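Quick log. Single chain, no ligands specified.
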Amino acid sequence: MLQQILRDMYIDPELLAELSDEQKDILFCKMREEQVRRWHVEEKKFEKEKKKNKKDKKKKKNDKHIDWLQGEDGKEWVWVMGEHDQDKRISTIHEELLHEKAIKQAHEEAKQKLAQEEEERRKRQQEEEEQQLKLFEEQERLASEAAKLEEERRKAEERERKLREEQERLAKEMEKKKEEERIQEEERKKEAQRRLEEERKKKEAEKKVEEERRKKEERNRKLQEEREQLEKAKKDELKRQQEEERAAKLKEERLALEKQRLENLKKEEEEKRRKAAEEQRIAKEKAEKEKELQRQAEERERKLKEEQQRLAKEKKEQEERIKQENERQLKLQAERTVKLAQEKARLFEAEERRRAELEKSMKEAKKKQEQLEKERREKEEQAKKLQAQAKLLKEHKDVDEQQEREELERRGRDAKRIEEERQRAEEIYQKLKQEEVEMEENNRVQIENIWNVQLRRSKVADKSKRERARWARKEIRRSRLSGFFDNLNIEEMMKSKTIIPPSNNEPPPAFKPSEANRPAQPADRQAVIDWYKEVQYSKGAGLDLTKKPAKWFHGIISRQKAEELLEPKSMGHFLVRVSERVWGYVLSYKDEERVKHFLIDASGSGYQFFGNEAMVHVSLYDLVQFHKVRPLSTAGCELAKTPCGQESDSQPDYQDLFDDNTSL
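-> predicted structure:
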């Protein structure tokens, strides 16, 4: 099996997993030796071809070559380090290299420390700048809020002043308008009295019908005047309501301003309340007067309705008589209506002109106020700029002083850092020197351990050779006494290298060569079963001296199943199971920490652990008995002490390996 692996230079991963650590090391060494052997063969072949090609190839004129430096004796000049007087000793060079390495490492550490300190300083400086920036922004915000509050207070005072002026102006306009209306009313009354006097004089000269018509006209005139007065009262009431609404709006604005001013100006609170009470009293008086006027208007309307009813009755009686008089009266009334409309239009135009002039003057005043406010803000901004420049100059001065202090501190830090770097270099140098001494001591101990291991292995090999020689001498002596020399096949003994005889001192049977037609690895489980029945059963593999299955023998079970059986057991328990991967077996051993697996090669004539140098045994039983007193591996102390039996005696796992003919 090993020859097959070395020929293919490949091993199946599942087969590799079945090998123990020592068997894996042996396989690696063998494969490496095979690689080296193949390389030497190829190298020799390449050298032969190269020499053959070199003879056939003519030398070129401009072929590249090497000229060696010649010495005084005409030979190649050679310099041996340490022979010259000025050459440094290896210990001195080593000390210098250690010192340079320590200085370099200390410099790197100092550089990292400096970078870390610089990063921390930069972070602190950045945090201070952020705090100063936040403080400056907070100051600007407070200043802007104070300016906004001052601006709002000023605007509130300005609005209050404008409201007072507007209220006074409206009051004056109302008084002026009432005076004009009173004058117009007096003029109309005088004109009416004059016309009445003229009509009275005319009616005295007229007939009784004309007297009645005059009376009727007088009544109609009075009725018209009452209507006009009623319309006028309604208009006055409408204007009064509009003025009240405006006053109410003004009052709401003023109350809102007063509420805002109460928070900032507590001293003016009482004066505002007094004014509000006065305005409420005036509004109340106005409401009472309006109620009185409304009551009078209702009384006049009631009387007017009664008069209309009476006039309607008289009209029916005098309709034909006063028809012409009515037409004349209608013409006069139309003329008066036109005159009144013209007079109202003139008054309305005059009112509009006054209003436009007032708005224009208010706009000009507002514009002038805005210009003054703009100039004031510009002056404040200039003052702020001057303050900022002064503050900036002061900060520059502080920064220069701070930079000087930082420069002095930096120089001190640099000197301190250089001194620390020198001390650190000395510490690193001593540490490296100590580590080198410890490493030399460890190497010396390791070399001694390796030498002891090699010595122990050499003693074991010598002892094994002596045992083989002693056994061979016994075999020859026994054969000479018995006269039976068929089993003394020197070539077979040389191939098997070492053979331990069976415990009953019987001569070992002659080895049969491995089957040539069998593949390198079994194809499936059935192939393993057939191989065991045909080959291994006849050799007594897995059987004890009574020809019954040994307690440690198991059938075709997996690696995991074997570990499950051995896991609860103590150290020294073992079992031998049939491998499904190769033509052989696996000895699973419970160690102190884990379960180890050792592959047993049964593809040849005997039984041996995987590897060329392993000892070959005649039977599987002899191999197990041998390793009950000898370790399973040269590196460890594994002894197969206690066999691990079947999990169930009624249904053993090797039952499929025995048919009816071979059943036990």
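The two ends are 31 Å apart (CA to CA).
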